[in-house]
Specification:
- The structure is a single chain.
- A hairpin with a 7-residue loop joins strand 3 and strand 4.
- The radius of gyration is 22 Å and the shape is elongated.
- The protein contains seven helices and nine strands, in the order βαβββαβαβαβαββαα.
- The relative contact order is 0.15.
Length: 227
Amino acid sequence: MRIDILTIFPEMFQGPFTESIIKRAVNKGLAEIHIHNIRDFAKNKHKNVDDYVYGGNAGMVMMIQPIADCINHLKQEREYDEVIFLTPDGEVLNQGIANQLSLKQNIIMLCGHYKGIDERIRQHFITREISIGDYVLSGGELAAAVLADSIIRLIPGVLSDETSALSDSFQDGLLSPPVYTRPAEYNGWKVPDVLLSGNEKEIINWNYNQSLERTQTRRPDLLEDKI
């Protein structure tokens, strides 16, 4: 998989993409991440990428020309399955979306800033708009990092135990059950006996019941479609 990220703050990705799972995926050759500075495509003297809002509203808007030229430059080199704009008014990211996108080969992610991007970019270039929650960030960079992480970890071979992702929260519409590790007893607090029993059937049933109970308590909205 190749992910191209368009941003005016490329340095923001140095931390998230140089550690942990994403770093492992890149080192294995399972994922490529390319960061593009939108300012490099600005044609004005001062490399400005924003301008005042038509209509007199407050704030600045990212200009159409640098973004369009950057996207067109990339599209000349390869075909893209999705051109994604990270925006608070997009569809809210969930595990199902991450699963879908993990099957793609080439993705562009556009990070907005200020009051957003010129609407014509959204109308003529963007194929999907995604939000990571009902709140506003200073820009799309952190959202792009979250989206990239949620996708890349699902690529076969990225996780050392590929079955691990299958038991994550939301994969089956439920929250994950509680998990434990050694020691079996600490400070008088014990691991449930069923998890130490070795009885696979009972452990599976226990995990399911715990997932169901946790979902009913913490996220009952996830169960509405199951009723």
